[in-house]
């Protein structure tokens, strides 16, 4: 009986491990638009933190279909699609911004077409952040 109990525990632990691991080894979801190569899962949380006041504003964005709490999801997703989901490739908008020092940190966590990513960058003020990231941070 002493030998049976440890064996039962090992089998139960193995079964639990397989059960918990199975969802992570399943095949990836089908493409959102067959033949387009676009993964079905594009979702991100966008947060802007004003470092002086501590004020935090955030929104969520999902592309393909374009929705969530972002006020302009189509425009924001178009900017990201044009950059291939790479925030460093977003074309900045050339506009004058005031020389006001009110730093903001933009943090984006999420998935672009199934691949996880994180983006974080500090800007001298919100105007510069919006000019750099376009409609993505306009909320």
UniProtKB/TrEMBL annotation:
InterPro entries: Prot_inh_I16_SSI, Subtilisin_inhibitor, Subtilisin_inhibitor-like_sf. GO terms for cellular component: extracellular region. Keywords: Disulfide bond, Protease inhibitor, Secreted, Serine protease inhibitor, Signal. It is found in: Secreted. Its main location: secreted. GO terms for molecular function: serine-type endopeptidase inhibitor activity. The keyword Mitochondrion does not apply. It holds the Pfam family SSI. Belongs to the protease inhibitor I16 (SSI) family. This is Subtilisin inhibitor domain-containing protein. It comes from Spongiactinospora rosea.
């Amino acid at each position: 009986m002493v030998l049976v109990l440890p064996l039962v525990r090992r089998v139960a632990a193995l079964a639990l491990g397989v059960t918990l691991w199975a969802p992570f080894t399943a095949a990836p979801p089908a493409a959102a638009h067959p033949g387009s190569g676009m993964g079905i899962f594009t979702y991100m949380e966008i947060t802007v933190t004003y470092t002086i006041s501590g004020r935090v504003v955030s929104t969520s964005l999902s592309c393909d279909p374009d929705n969530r709490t972002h006020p302009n999801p189509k425009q924001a997703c178009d900017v990201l699609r044009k950059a291939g989901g790479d925030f460093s490739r977003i074309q900045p908008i050339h506009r004058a911004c005031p020389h006001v020092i009110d730093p903001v940190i933009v943090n984006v966590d999420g998935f672009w077409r199934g691949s996880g990513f994180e983006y974080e960058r500090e800007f001298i003020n919100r105007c510069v952040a919006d000019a750099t990231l376009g409609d993505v941070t306009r909320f």
